Amino acid sequence: MEYCSTRKVNRECEVWCGVVPSRFLNLYSVLRDMEKLPALLPPFLIFFLSFSLSLSDGDFTGNSSYPVQSSPADSLCAQLIEPNGYSCTEHTVQTKDGYILALHRVSSRSGDLRVQQSHPVLLQHGLFMAGDAWFLDSTDRSLGFILADQGFDVWVGNVRGTRWSRGHVSLSETEKEFWEWSWQELALYDLAEMLHYINSVTSLKIFIVGHSQGTIMSLAALTQPDIVEMVEAAALLSPISYLEHVSAPLVLRMVAMHLDQMVLALGIHQLNFRSDVLVNLVESLCDGHVDCTDFLTSITGQNCCFNKTRMDFYLEYEPHPSSVKNLRHLFQMIRQGTFSQYDYGIWKNILMYGRLKPPAFDLNSIPKSLPLWMSYGGNDALADIMDVQRTLEELLSKPELLYLENYGHIDFLLSIKANRDVYDNMIGFLRSLEKSSSS
């Protein structure tokens, strides 16, 4: 463990030298500079100190409880897709910044992957999820299986850092540099490279289907001319570009506690909710302040039709890791009410962007001619109706909309009725575009 040096430090920090790792001086600086700190901050500081002093530096850079994928038997194809009788192949994509991503291609039980006639569809998962999220229910309820059975050429994306995409040309996941990214890179590098690969294989434009963070990535990417030219249309479940009106109580508490700044100051770079560190931290956030009895509701809102009886099975795959920088970027959106690139602070913004504030992703840049479909819910505490409305006002086009009053954030992915409530409508939208393009 690295300790503060013997050089002179200010009087407030003298007591720490030789006892506490230097990362706690960073934490102290963050806490000292915060305005209007919550009254319960000292217990949290004690909590951070107690569990952090017992950890090695490796615990702060990204060790995961997921097994390293070392054989075809460990792949998404082998675990969830092929056992249900569907053909599946795994492809490897390398991003411009060196990450190695897994991209899975799925066809129906009667289909042939070598001869796919229908349009390619890229499924892009949300935060703390991966491509497995589209296959967690029965074949008649999971969107990945449903689209394959409908004859679509289904491609399943997995962003960097998730179980299926943990490679890099030079970095290890135990290095903090491996986790130096946010959804900005996921949109401009990961999604862009996956689209380019699918386009090169199929010679067709692609339908994007995204959920949650997958919609943030999609909307940001679609503002870029070199990316949008590869896209035929986009269907967005729980669409997000703004997060100003988030109402999820646990999320709001994390934002109020400046959790993102605290964990970064401690040297934590991977957010892995399978680790004891993060599990204990979340429990402390809930204790006496947020009702986390129904943990999912505390972070997503009330879900009407989520099949809780399958929770143990879901937890075999979810949650997947993400980066602390990604969480901080999302918290910036909540605090600032913006849909912009990552905010490094004034001086680094000038260095990175040549301006004081990060550039916004301009929704007006998405071509009016690009067909869009969106479905959102009245109980969604993350994709709030007011924020969805702001997104709609800034788009040049008029997306087709499906509003479901009783749906929460996870219902769009795991509702026992989503096949009828949501997917039939969305597939009708995609089919109509196929017919118009072929006529």
TrEMBL record:
Gene3D superfamilies with a match to the protein in the record: alpha/beta hydrolase
Name of protein: Lipase
UniProt cross-references to SUPFAM superfamilies, sorted A to Z: alpha/beta-Hydrolases
Similarity field: Belongs to the AB hydrolase superfamily. Lipase family.
GO terms classed as biological process: lipid catabolic process
PANTHER family per record: LYSOSOMAL ACID LIPASE-RELATED (PTHR11005)
Active site (UniProt): 212, 380, 409
Species of origin: Theobroma cacao
Keywords: Glycoprotein, Hydrolase, Lipid degradation, Lipid metabolism, Signal
Example of a GO MF term: hydrolase activity, acting on ester bonds
Domain Partial AB-hydrolase lipase: from-to ranges: 78-136
UniProt keyword annotation of Glycoprotein present: yes
Pfam families from the UniProt entry: Abhydro_lipase
Domain of life: Eukaryota
